Amino acid sequence: MIPTKEEVVATYNRVKPFVHQTPVITSSLLNSLAGADLYFKCENFQKMGAFKMRGAINAIQQLSDDQKNTGVVTHSSGNFAQALSLAAKNLGVKAYIVMPSNTPQVKKDAVLGYGGIITESQPTLAAREKEANRIQSETRATFIHPSNNTDVILGQGTAAIELLQKHPDLDCILTPVGGGGLIAGTALAAHYLAEKCQVIGSEPFEADDAWRSLQTGKIETNETTNTVADGLRTNLGNINFPIINKLVAQIIRVEETEIAAAMSLIWERMKIIVEPSSAVPLAAVLKKKAFFKNKKVGIIISGGNVDLKNLPF
Questions:
Q1: In 3D, which of 172, 162, 168 has the Cα closest to residue 296?
Q2: Which of 4, 114, 183, 266 is deepest in the core (most CB within 10 A)?
Q3: 59/26 same-domain check
Q4: CB within 8 A of 249, min separation 6: which ones?
Q5: Which domain holds residue 76?
Q6: Per the UniProt record, which residue ranges are transmembrane (predicted)?
Q7: pTM of the shown model
Q8: Which contiguous run of DSSP H or E holds residue 96?
């Protein structure tokens, strides 16, 4: 069931007081390189450094008082772990976070700093899910999936709503595609609020499950995810895929060298810190210049939580 326009607008109004209205910035140099007008929606400046704060805050707000009293639980090694922890703290709710044992300490420290209660698991999806289920049964906490949850999807779409308020005449908006929450939410926002604006996904060749899913019409998975864009190693879900399948125009795949080059360009030319996943949409625009030529292109910079000891350039 695809959410309605009323749900999209209500979500925006609900989330707005709890998140930063992040800036939209441009670069004349990148415009000339791309041959298009690029508008970067900088969610790297969002609370906790990524768009995922939006979905987390919306999902918790939609819970009953009873559910808020027993807390929330998720499994994540990255930005959603931080987002749910901070959103829960801001709303006075306990957050239980299952994190793989091989998660970098800097990410664990961030979750702890936001008040998240960490349980470590073996670094497999099955182990993560098992721990989350155990916590649910012991605490009655409500499970919130990082991307395959309607309220999370609607929350993530509020970044595109803000972008379209500033630039209602965009020809297209690009997002990276990982678990599918951001692109599904973006597609809903554009579908209802800017009918002529296409939504286009961007994905590494090394984790191109979403591209293949659009080809076959069913959810595909990855055998390997050997990409520097660590935020895009997850799979689509049964709630976000129908939205993506219906409303996303296409997905463009890029090489690892193209991701690193685009990330380097953003750091050097725009003077902002972005994580590798955030550079994938720019890499897609630069790869397909003929398609984007002279278009007004929105790009959602998904986050800036980068491991400074492990840069790809």
A1: 172
A2: 183
A3: no
A4: 172, 198, 199, 200
A5: 53-143
A6: none
A7: 0.96
A8: strand 95-100
What's the CA dihedral at 73, 78, 80, 86 to 10 degrees?
A: 80
Considering 143, 167, 183, which residue would you say is the last residue of a domain?
143
- Tell me which H or E stretch contains 41: strand 37-42
Q: Which two tokens stand for residue 70?
A: 């027993």
Between CA 97 and CA 224, with CA 144 as vertex, the angle to 5 degrees is 75
Answer left, alpha or beta for residue 27, where phi above 0 means left and psi between -120 and 50 means alpha.
beta
Instruction: Centre a 10 Å sphere on the Cβ of residue 290 and count the other Cβ atoms it contains.
Output: 6
> 67 in a domain, yes or no?
yes
Same domain? For 17 and 58 the reply is: no
The closest of 193, 206, 136, 120 to 160, measured between CA atoms, is 193
Domain count, the chain: 2
Together in a domain, 207 and 272: yes
Please write the tens of the pLDDT for every residue from 151-202. 999 999 999 999 999 999 999 999 999 999 999 999 999 999 998 999 999 9
